[in-house]
C-alpha cells in the first residue's frame, strides 16, 4: 500500500504545475429497476417476489428484492428461479415503459450536469465537479437527485459519491436499496482493501474464482502484490488490477459513450434441431436485431452468432468484414453462414442470438457501399 492516491491532480489537468480540484463523481443505480416499475404500476405486486421475463423457457431479466431473498437473480433460467421461489410471480417485460422512466430520470440528471455517462437504462455516472445550483457538495447533489427521482417517478435509487468512477460504483452498491454512500479520497484505499474482489466492477465470477484460487480474496490481497507480480500473472489486466485496488482511476465521465455492440436473441418454447427450423428462427432474430441496429444508427464490422443448446452449453461464432456491415441483407446472410458451419447441431437449440460489434456511427451523407457476400 505504498502507492499514493492521486487525490488532488486529475489526468487532464493543465501541465502548469498547479493542481486542479479532484473530480466529484456520482454513480446512480436504480433499485431493481424493471421489477420496481412493475410493482409501482401494479399495486397488487407490491411486497411480493416478482421476476421480469422468465416464462416456460426463458430467463429472469430482473428480480425484485423480495425475490432476491430466495436467491433469484437476473440471467437465471426461469425453471431454477421457480424452484428457488415457488411463489415467484413472472411478468412480461415492458421495455417501452422502462425506457420512458429512464428518460424521466435522465432529465433530472441534466438539471445538475451536462456530463452524464449512461451505462444502461437504470444506471449512469455523473460528473458534478461544477456545482451548478450551489448545493455545497456532491453528497448534497446526490441526495437531491435521489429525492427528485422518488418524487417524480415513485421509484428509489442508490448512489455512490467519490472522486473517480471505480470507487463511486463500488459505493453505490454499499447501502442498497435506497441508500447513499460517500467515499472520500483519503478513505478509498482502506475501503477497497475491505472488499472481496468479486465486488470489483470488471472482475466477473470466473476471474474472481481464478484470483481466489491464487489466494487473492480481497482488495487488501491485491494491494499486497506489486505491479510486476500482477502484470506477470494477468498481463494487461494486471495493470488495471494494480491501479483500481489503489483507487487510481482517471477515466473521465464520457457523455457520448458509444455502445460496443447491438444484438437480439430469442429463447424458444421448444428445442429446435433441424436446419429449416433454425434458419427460420435465425431470420426472425436477425430482423429484430437489425431494427435495433437501425435505431442506433450504427454499422459494424463483426457479426456474432450466439447459440445455447438444450443442456445450457453456450457457444458463439463470429465473422469480421473489412468494411462495416451497413445493410440488413449482409448482416442476415452472415448469420446464416455462421449457422451453416455448425450444422448438424449435436443437441437441440433453445436460444439463438445475432449481434453486430466493432461499431461505427452511420454517416448518411457518405455514399454507402453494398456489403459483399461471404
Q: What can you see in these coordinates?
A:
Among the domains are: 33-93, MutS, DNA mismatch repair protein, domain I; 185-250, 5' to 3' exonuclease, C-terminal subdomain (DNA polymerase, domain 1), CATH 1.10.150.20; 261-361, 2-Layer Sandwich (Dna Ligase, domain 1). The chain is built from 13 helices and twelve strands. The chain has helices at residues 33-41, 65-68, 78-84, 95-110, 138-153, 165-172, 188-193, 205-213, 219-223, 227-234, 236-244, 275-295, 328-340; strands at residues 25-30, 50-53, 60-63, 89-91, 116-120, 123-127, 157-162, 180-182, 261-272, 298-309, 314-325, 349-361. The protein has a five-stranded mixed β-sheet with strand order 5-6-1-7-8. A four-stranded antiparallel β-sheet has the order 9-12-10-11. A three-stranded mixed β-sheet has the order 3-2-4. α4 runs antiparallel to α5 (138-153) and α12 (275-295) packs antiparallel against α13. Residues 1-19 and 362-374 have low confidence and may be disordered.
Keywords:
374 residues; single chain; alpha+beta; 35% helix; Dna Ligase, domain 1; DNA polymerase, domain 1; disordered N terminus; MutS, DNA mismatch repair protein, domain I
Amino acid at each position: 500500500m505504498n502507492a499514493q492516491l492521486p487525490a488532488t491532480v486529475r489526468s487532464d489537468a493543465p501541465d502548469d504545475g498547479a493542481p486542479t480540484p479532484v473530480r466529484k463523481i456520482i454513480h446512480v443505480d436504480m433499485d431493481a429497476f424493471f421489477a420496481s416499475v412493475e410493482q409501482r404500476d401494479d399495486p397488487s405486486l407490491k411486497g411480493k417476489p416478482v421476476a421480469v421475463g422468465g416464462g416456460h423457457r426463458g430467463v429472469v431479466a430482473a428480480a425484485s428484492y423480495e425475490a432476491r431473498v430466495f436467491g433469484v437473480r437476473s440471467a437465471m433460467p426461469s425453471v431454477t428461479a421457480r424452484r428457488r421461489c415457488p411463489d415467484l410471480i413472472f411478468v412480461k417485460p415492458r421495455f417501452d415503459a422502462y425506457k420512458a422512466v429512464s428518460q424521466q430520470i435522465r432529465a433530472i440528471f441534466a438539471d445538475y450536469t451536462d456530463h452524464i455517462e449512461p451505462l444502461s437504462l437504470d444506471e449512469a455516472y455523473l460528473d458534478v465537479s461544477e456545482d451548478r445550483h450551489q448545493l455545497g457538495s456532491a453528497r448534497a447533489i446526490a441526495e437531491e437527485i435521489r429525492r427528485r427521482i422518488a418524487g417524480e417517478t415513485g421509484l428509489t435509487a442508490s448512489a455512490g459519491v467519490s472522486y473517480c468512477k471505480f470507487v463511486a460504483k463500488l459505493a453505490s452498491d454499499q447501502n442498497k436499496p435506497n441508500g447513499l454512500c460517500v467515499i472520500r479520497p483519503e478513505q478509498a484505499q482502506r475501503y477497497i482493501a475491505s472488499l472481496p474482489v468479486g465486488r470489483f466492477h470488471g472482475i466477473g465470477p470466473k476471474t474472481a474464482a481464478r484470483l481466489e484460487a491464487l489466494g487473492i480474496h480481497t482488495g487488501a490481497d491485491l494491494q499486497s502484490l506489486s505491479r510486476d507480480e500482477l502484470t506477470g500473472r494477468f498481463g494487461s489486466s494486471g495493470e488495471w488490477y494494480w491501479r483500481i485496488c489503489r483507487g487510481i482511476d482517471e477515466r473521465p465521465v464520457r457523455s457520448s459513450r458509444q455502445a460496443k455492440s447491438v444484438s437480439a436473441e430469442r429463447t424458444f418454447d421448444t428445442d429446435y434441431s433441424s436446419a429449416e427450423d433454425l434458419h427460420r428462427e435465425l431470420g426472425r432474430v436477425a430482423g429484430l436485431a437489425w431494427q435495433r441496429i437501425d435505431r442506433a444508427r450504427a454499422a459494424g464490422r463483426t457479426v456474432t452468432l450466439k447459440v445455447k443448446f438444450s443442456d445450457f452449453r453456450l457457444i458463439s461464432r463470429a465473422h469480421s468484414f473489412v468494411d462495416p456491415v451497413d445493410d440488413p441483407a449482409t448482416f442476415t446472410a452472415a448469420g446464416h453462414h455462421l449457422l451453416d458451419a455448425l450444422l448438424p447441431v449435436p443437441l437441440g437449440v433453445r436460444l439463438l442470438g445475432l449481434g453486430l460489434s466493432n461499431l461505427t456511427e452511420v454517416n448518411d451523407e457518405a455514399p454507402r457501399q453494398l456489403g459483399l457476400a461471404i
